[in-house]
């Protein structure tokens, strides 16, 4: 089932406002427990988790910055000049 453009925008906003801060807290806890003294290990973990979080939501964020494809096109030929 494909989501409409408006639904994808709402889900993307929800993911960014609610999901991402939770994911950041989980990533921080993981980084401090797994590799607390290793700079390179912690850096690799942050880079890996920074890439991995977007994979499930790639289809939701794809095309969000574009104009709504379902909207009526705006016509400017009706100018009363």
Automatic annotation (TrEMBL):
Pfam families: DUF2842. The chain crosses the membrane at residues 12-32, 38-57. Keywords: Membrane, Transmembrane, Transmembrane helix. It comes from the Bacteria. This is DUF2842 domain-containing protein. It comes from Shimia marina.
